[in-house]
Write a structure and sequence with these properties.
It contains eight helices and no strands. The chain is an all-alpha fold. Helix 2 packs antiparallel against helix 3 and helix 4 packs antiparallel against helix 5. It is globular and about 45 Å long. It starts with a helix and ends with a helix.
């Protein structure tokens, strides 16, 4: 019975995540917010890596419930990046943003070498933590942009995403997650929640 409840929580977290993306896309289409296109390009690639590393990390210890949100997140993020490209929202990457992409590519090569080519360079746990560090750094451009202009973002979607990651944290804790598996939902809940708080003063 507890596994059914955990699965329901996993589905709920995935639905919340998807709703957040729908809310965000709606706000963009109505010109209520000005998305940071470079951040979305970085997140698209980074989220795929984080999702895969998280699945590799938890696949032997957790139910499918813990994997639903990362999968929904990575797919939705790519769709959003393509959508922004279609409507002409992208700008050239800044030097700092190119370095983040380069870092993610380096981690990808290390992962491939470690897991698929038989070269023991870093464990999946270490790679996952490196990707989380990269994800945190990737939020710096949007933090700066929202700090300078709170109207650049709308808080609703960010709070929805933060809550979705909180639900994932509950799932991981119930299933006895270790530090590496807990870091992902905690970090992402904080990263998204901070954007929501910074943008919230626009609504006051």
């Amino acid at each position: 019975m507890i596994f059914d409840k955990i699965l329901m929580l996993g589905i709920f977290s995935g639905i919340l995540q998807f709703i957040g993306y729908c809310v965000y896309a709606l706000n963009v289409s109505k010109d209520r917010i000005k998305p940071n296109p470079a951040s979305w390009l970085i997140w698209s690639y980074g989220n795929i890596l984080v999702c895969l590393s998280y699945i590799f990390l938890v696949e032997w210890n957790f139910t499918f419930a813990a994997e639903i949100l990362p999968i929904v997140c990575s797919i939705s993020c790519v769709i959003m990046a393509l959508y922004f490209t279609y409507i002409g929202k992208f700008r050239p990457l800044l030097s700092f943003e190119k370095k983040i992409i380069f870092f993610d590519l380096c981690v990808t090569l290390i992962w491939i070498s470690s897991e698929f080519l038989g070269l023991t360079i870093l464990s999946v746990n270490s790679i996952h933590i490196l990707l989380l560090v990269s994800a945190a750094v990737a939020f710096i451009p949007i933090y700066k942009e929202v700090f300078d202009d709170p109207s650049a973002e709308h808080s609703h979607a960010w709070f929805i995403w933060a809550f979705a990651y909180f639900v994932l944290l509950v799932i991981v804790l119930v299933e006895g997650g270790d530090l590496e598996s807990i870091l992902y939902p905690v970090l992402y809940a904080v990263l998204h929640g901070v954007v929501g708080v910074m943008a919230y003063k626009k609504l006051l």
